[in-house]
Amino acid sequence: MNMQLNEFDTVMEQIGFGKVHCYIMLTLGLLQMLTIHETMGMGIIAPSAVCDLRMSLVQLSTITAAAFLGIICSSYFWGYITDKMGRRWILLHTISIMLLVPAL
Protein backbone atom coordinates (compact mmCIF):
# COMPACT_ATOMS: atom_id res chain seq x y z
CA MET A 1 0.00 0.00 0.00
CA ASN A 2 2.81 2.41 0.84
CA MET A 3 4.44 1.72 -2.51
CA GLN A 4 1.32 2.80 -4.41
CA LEU A 5 1.00 5.92 -2.29
CA ASN A 6 4.61 6.84 -2.97
CA GLU A 7 4.15 6.32 -6.71
CA PHE A 8 1.04 8.49 -6.63
CA ASP A 9 2.90 11.23 -4.75
CA THR A 10 5.75 11.05 -7.26
CA VAL A 11 3.37 11.42 -10.20
CA MET A 12 1.55 14.33 -8.54
CA GLU A 13 4.87 16.09 -7.93
CA GLN A 14 5.84 15.63 -11.57
CA ILE A 15 2.60 16.93 -13.10
CA GLY A 16 1.89 19.53 -10.44
CA PHE A 17 -1.43 20.76 -9.14
CA GLY A 18 -2.88 23.95 -10.52
CA LYS A 19 -5.90 25.98 -11.47
CA VAL A 20 -6.99 23.47 -14.11
CA HIS A 21 -7.43 20.76 -11.50
CA CYS A 22 -9.53 23.08 -9.31
CA TYR A 23 -11.65 24.08 -12.33
CA ILE A 24 -12.22 20.43 -13.27
CA MET A 25 -13.16 19.51 -9.70
CA LEU A 26 -15.61 22.43 -9.52
CA THR A 27 -17.18 21.62 -12.89
CA LEU A 28 -17.55 17.90 -12.20
CA GLY A 29 -18.83 18.59 -8.68
CA LEU A 30 -21.54 20.88 -10.05
CA LEU A 31 -22.50 18.30 -12.68
CA GLN A 32 -22.77 15.63 -9.99
CA MET A 33 -24.93 17.94 -7.88
CA LEU A 34 -27.17 18.53 -10.90
CA THR A 35 -27.60 14.80 -11.46
CA ILE A 36 -28.42 14.14 -7.81
CA HIS A 37 -30.79 17.12 -7.66
CA GLU A 38 -32.66 15.94 -10.74
CA THR A 39 -32.94 12.38 -9.45
CA MET A 40 -33.98 13.30 -5.92
CA GLY A 41 -36.50 15.82 -7.22
CA MET A 42 -38.86 12.92 -7.83
CA GLY A 43 -39.29 12.64 -4.06
CA ILE A 44 -40.84 16.10 -4.05
CA ILE A 45 -43.03 15.59 -7.10
CA ALA A 46 -44.19 12.07 -6.28
CA PRO A 47 -46.67 12.80 -3.44
CA SER A 48 -48.57 15.39 -5.45
CA ALA A 49 -48.49 13.17 -8.56
CA VAL A 50 -50.26 10.41 -6.61
CA CYS A 51 -53.15 12.74 -5.82
CA ASP A 52 -53.34 14.66 -9.09
CA LEU A 53 -52.87 11.72 -11.46
CA ARG A 54 -54.59 9.09 -9.28
CA MET A 55 -51.59 6.78 -9.42
CA SER A 56 -51.22 3.49 -7.63
CA LEU A 57 -48.19 2.71 -5.47
CA VAL A 58 -46.81 0.43 -8.18
CA GLN A 59 -47.02 3.21 -10.77
CA LEU A 60 -45.46 5.69 -8.35
CA SER A 61 -42.57 3.39 -7.50
CA THR A 62 -41.99 2.62 -11.19
CA ILE A 63 -41.73 6.29 -12.09
CA THR A 64 -39.53 7.04 -9.08
CA ALA A 65 -37.19 4.14 -9.86
CA ALA A 66 -36.95 5.03 -13.55
CA ALA A 67 -34.37 7.78 -12.98
CA PHE A 68 -32.15 5.50 -10.92
CA LEU A 69 -32.54 2.67 -13.42
CA GLY A 70 -31.57 5.04 -16.23
CA ILE A 71 -28.39 6.04 -14.41
CA ILE A 72 -27.47 2.42 -13.70
CA CYS A 73 -28.17 1.18 -17.23
CA SER A 74 -26.49 4.06 -19.04
CA SER A 75 -23.34 4.08 -16.92
CA TYR A 76 -21.91 1.07 -18.78
CA PHE A 77 -22.62 2.70 -22.14
CA TRP A 78 -21.02 6.01 -21.16
CA GLY A 79 -18.07 4.22 -19.59
CA TYR A 80 -17.43 2.38 -22.85
CA ILE A 81 -17.78 5.53 -24.96
CA THR A 82 -15.49 7.43 -22.58
CA ASP A 83 -12.84 4.72 -22.87
CA LYS A 84 -13.01 4.89 -26.66
CA MET A 85 -13.37 8.66 -27.23
CA GLY A 86 -11.77 10.18 -24.13
CA ARG A 87 -13.15 12.09 -21.17
CA ARG A 88 -12.65 15.53 -22.66
CA TRP A 89 -14.59 14.68 -25.83
CA ILE A 90 -17.46 13.18 -23.85
CA LEU A 91 -17.66 16.07 -21.39
CA LEU A 92 -17.61 18.72 -24.11
CA HIS A 93 -20.31 17.06 -26.17
CA THR A 94 -22.63 15.99 -23.36
CA ILE A 95 -22.47 19.36 -21.60
CA SER A 96 -23.09 21.15 -24.91
CA ILE A 97 -26.10 18.95 -25.65
CA MET A 98 -27.39 19.40 -22.11
CA LEU A 99 -27.25 23.18 -22.54
CA LEU A 100 -28.96 23.11 -25.95
CA VAL A 101 -31.82 20.71 -25.21
CA PRO A 102 -33.71 22.92 -22.70
CA ALA A 103 -33.59 25.76 -25.24
CA LEU A 104 -35.54 23.66 -27.75
Automatic annotation (TrEMBL):
Top-level taxon of origin: Eukaryota
A Pfam family annotated for this UniProt entry: Sugar_tr
Domain named Major facilitator superfamily (MFS) profile: residues: 24-104
The entry's keywords: Membrane, Transmembrane, Transmembrane helix, Transport
Principal cellular location given in the protein's record: membrane
Subcellular location: Membrane
Protein name stated in the entry: Transporter svop-1 isoform X2
Species name: Drosophila arizonae
Underlying gene: LOC108620617
